[in-house]
């Protein structure tokens, strides 16, 4: 995965294109799925519809994450505690299985933060960044 404009924790699209990768799908939030075709006529990968249109119905901050990144074990509890101390609506959802990740409302399942239903970022943050984002 990459993006037309470089985003944190995603592969550099210029490097991938240099190596022969092609964009085969793009989500509404600019996240691109890139692939390297080995043979002509091979099936082209695509995002699932739920990931292609990152949006949720819940209000407040909602974080979808996995244990794929070891830093989540440190920073997710920091955000939960910071949100609770500051009265910020926050919910963390651990995607614990392949099926949960495949059916998530985001193409980036390692860390995807939403606010009032809209995708915000896949960048992990500490308490200060979170409070700044929350306007506190």
Per-chain topology:
Blueprint (H helix, E strand, L loop, with lengths): L1 E2 L9 H6 L3 E5 L4 E5 L13 H4 L8 E5 L6 H14 L4 E5 L3 H5 L8 E5 L2 E4 L5 H7 L3
Parallel strand pairs: 4-5
Antiparallel strand pairs: 1-3, 2-3, 4-6, 6-7
Brief characterization of the structure:
The chain is an alpha+beta fold and 136 residues long. 26% of the residues lie in helices and 23% in strands.
Q: Order of SSEs, N→C?
A: EHEEHEHEHEEH
- End-to-end distance: 32 Å
Mean pLDDT: 94
The neighbouring-strand order within the major sheet is: 5-4-6-7
Rg, Å, rounded:
16 Å
Could you say which overall geometry the principal axes of the C-alpha atoms support?
A: elongated
Please outline the major beta sheet.
Answer: 4 strands, mixed
Query: Which residue ranges are poorly predicted, with pLDDT under 50 across at least 5 consecutive positions?
Result: none
Q: Number of DSSP strands?
A: 7
How large is the share of residues in beta strands? Answer: 15-25%
Q: Given the structure, what is the number of helices?
A: 5
The secondary structure category is alpha+beta
Helix content: 25-40%
Structural account:
The chain is an alpha+beta fold. It contains 5 helices and 7 strands. It has helices spanning 13-18, 49-52, 72-85, 98-102, 127-133; strands at 2-3, 22-26, 31-35, 61-65, 90-94, 111-115, 118-121. Strands 5-4-6-7 form a 4-stranded mixed β-sheet, with helices on one face. A hairpin with a 2-residue loop joins strand 6 (111-115) and strand 7. It is elongated, with a radius of gyration of 16 Å. The two termini are 32 Å apart. The mean pLDDT is 94.
């Amino acid at each position: 995965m990459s993006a037309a404009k470089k985003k944190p924790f995603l592969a550099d699209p210029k490097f991938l294109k240099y190596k022969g990768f092609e964009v085969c799908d793009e989500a509404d939030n600019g996240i691109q799925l890139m692939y390297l075709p080995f043979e002509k006529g091979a099936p082209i990968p695509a995002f699932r519809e739920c990931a292609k249109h990152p949006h949720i119905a819940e209000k407040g901050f909602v974080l979808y994450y996995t244990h794929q990144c070891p830093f989540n074990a440190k920073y997710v509890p920091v955000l939960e505690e910071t949100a609770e101390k500051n009265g910020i609506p926050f919910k963390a959802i651990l995607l614990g299985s392949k099926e949960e990740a495949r059916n998530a409302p985001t193409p980036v399942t390692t860390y995807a933060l939403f606010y009032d239903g809209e995708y915000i970022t896949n960048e992990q943050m500490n308490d200060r960044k979170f409070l700044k984002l929350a306007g506190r």
